[in-house]
């Protein structure tokens, strides 16, 4: 009867593995990179670095490019 128990355990383990693979099927590394790239909508005019929102862009510009004039689209953004 020991073999019967091993068979059941093996089947359950295989079923879990299939469910896990199916769950991760839509979450490949390439899909994650594409989604992250879509979120980076603002690009610095000086160094071309990409940021997700205007607040971060303004902070970047003030810290990394203090000698340059602030772009017009960032002057009204609250930091």
UniProtKB/TrEMBL annotation:
Q: Which residues form the Small EDRK-rich factor-like N-terminal domain?
A: 1-40
Q: What is its main location?
A: cytoplasm
From what superkingdom does this record's organism come?
Eukaryota
Gene3D superfamilies, per database record:
At2g23090-like (4.10.1050.10)
- GO terms for cellular component: cytoplasm; nucleus
Q: Where is the composition biased (Low complexity)?
A: 1-13
Could you tell me which residues belong to the region Disordered? 1-34, 52-79
Compositionally biased intervals (Basic and acidic residues): 55-79
Q: Does the keyword Cytoplasm apply?
A: yes
Where is this chain's protein located in or outside the cell?
Cytoplasm; Nucleus
Which InterPro entries would you find in this protein's record? MBS1/2-like, SERF-like_N, ZNF706/At2g23090_sf
Which UniProt keyword terms apply here?
Cytoplasm, Nucleus
What SUPFAM superfamilies does this protein's entry cite?
A: Expressed protein At2g23090/F21P24.15
Name of the featured protein: Zinc finger protein 706-like isoform X1
